[in-house]
Amino acid sequence: MFDLPEIYRHPAMTTQEYVHARLRNAIMVGAVQPESTLTIRGLAEYLELSPTPVREALRRLSSERAIELLGNRRISIPVMTAPRLEEILRLRMTLECHAARRALPFVSEVLIDRMRAIDDRMDDYIQSRDLDALTISNHEFHRVLYTANPHQTVLPVIESVWLQLGPFQRQMIRALEQFYLIDRHKEILTALRERDAAALALAIEADIEDGIGRAGREVLQAGQPESETHPAAGWM
Amino acid sequence: MFDLPEIYRHPAMTTQEYVHARLRNAIMVGAVQPESTLTIRGLAEYLELSPTPVREALRRLSSERAIELLGNRRISIPVMTAPRLEEILRLRMTLECHAARRALPFVSEVLIDRMRAIDDRMDDYIQSRDLDALTISNHEFHRVLYTANPHQTVLPVIESVWLQLGPFQRQMIRALEQFYLIDRHKEILTALRERDAAALALAIEADIEDGIGRAGREVLQAGQPESETHPAAGWM
DNA sequence: TTCTCAAAAATGATATCACATAAAGCAGAA
DNA sequence: TTCTGCTTTATGTGATATCATTTTTGAGAA
């Protein structure tokens, strides 16, 4: 019924925090598919907890727009349509370019080294076909950059966008293996070393476009038969 | 102890939704100040409810970054510092310009008329000194524009930013009365009529800068004695 | 077989309770 | 007076119980 990847539970974590973190991680890596029927009590039983902390975690996730709590006792992952994907991608580009630009003055050589280390680790995960770890490392790569700015407030928003793209992650990562794209992360690192804001923005946009963008559109085209008859009417 | 403006409770609203909406509105218009000590049980007693729906509403608000649930049984409105205000303002500009640009192709004459009507109403509220209604109408003015795009996904993010600027609203509105600024909304409407994306972005940035930006910085300078000795070290 | 509808089961929302722990109050010492 | 440490109070968390609704199921009719 469910298959939520386990996570480490810090002793100081409340139950509600644990449920939230575990569900969030599961959605982020694409382990929860839109088809799966979620219920508060079902999740509580699966996790061997009472419904209370589960409901609170679900509410938080709906505020982060990772899930939707429909009024009629249905909990769902928002359905993705072509125009919605387009909007989310554009928003992600705007947000991450903004975050990168605001972080640039705080970027140090040490930080660039950390990012390169994460990027190297990603190559290992590609070799070992560890798709979830690859997703997490990819996020980590971006997060390290954006949090260089100590006053930064945009990261939670960006993570909310990542959550909304969660259901695409696994397909995206799989598509990445096929194409074996030019490594946009290397371009990001180069732009950082040269403190080139314009190049940085271009590299980030390309990274998003080549990753989620291309793969996401292919998934949508392949998986939605009705979009073949009315390709542009997904939102009606 | 509390003074949360009352709101209309739709019969279909759950208690948790009602609490969330009422608190959210109160924070948005600046009725909840950072000094106020909030507790789950205190709020529940004030609203004559059980703690459960109150806790859920507070959790959602913390996910929207309207409040912070500190581990040590303290709930607070995040303290504003000069660099944090700067970051939030820049983020708001980026987000609202993005939203406006994405909405522009969907803007119709009818929509512009609706926006102008809202702007006219704001002038009335300035006359009648109804500051909260002025804030709400100001948000409404922007919201109508951004939701012109039917696929729009950015509005919840923008509202989260508005929430974070909530504690400044009342001072800001008061400052607006003093300066009686050039009406940036008129510039926005002109840019919309001419379908001029660049002018629209400039008008929105100016609107934010002249409104929250100027007033917010003044409030911070006036109200924070320690920032006089170390003007740029607010975040350390 | 398929449809209809009533009974049964499941579910979400909320209140209440018990428990652990943090905050507040307060008495006595310095 | 001010600080220290203990007691009391208040608070957050999570489990459980109850109630109103929704969903599901299945028997009988078409």
Q: How much is the radius of gyration of chain A in Å?
A: 18 Å
Overall average pLDDT of chain A: 89
State the secondary-structure class of chain A.
mainly alpha
Query: Biggest interface between protein chains, with counts per chain?
Result: A-B, 35 and 35 residues
The unreliable regions of chain A are 225-236
Give the biggest sheet of chain A.
2 strands, antiparallel
How many strand units of chain A? 2
CATH homologous superfamily of the largest domain in chain A, by name?
Answer: GntR ligand-binding domain-like
CATH topology value of the largest domain in chain A: Four Helix Bundle (Hemerythrin (Met), subunit A)
Instruction: Determine the N-to-C terminus distance of chain A.
Output: 31 Å
Name the shape of chain A in a single word: globular
Helix content of chain A: 55-70%
Strand order of the largest sheet of chain A: 1-2
* Percentage of residues in DSSP E strands of chain A: under 5%
Q: Judging by the overall fold, what is the CATH architecture of the largest domain in chain A?
A: Up-down Bundle
Helix-strand string of chain A? HHHEEHHHHHHHH
For the record, the count of structural domains of chain A works out to 2
Q: Oligomerization state of this entry?
A: homodimer
CATH C-level label of the largest domain in chain A: Mainly Alpha
Number of helices of chain A: 11
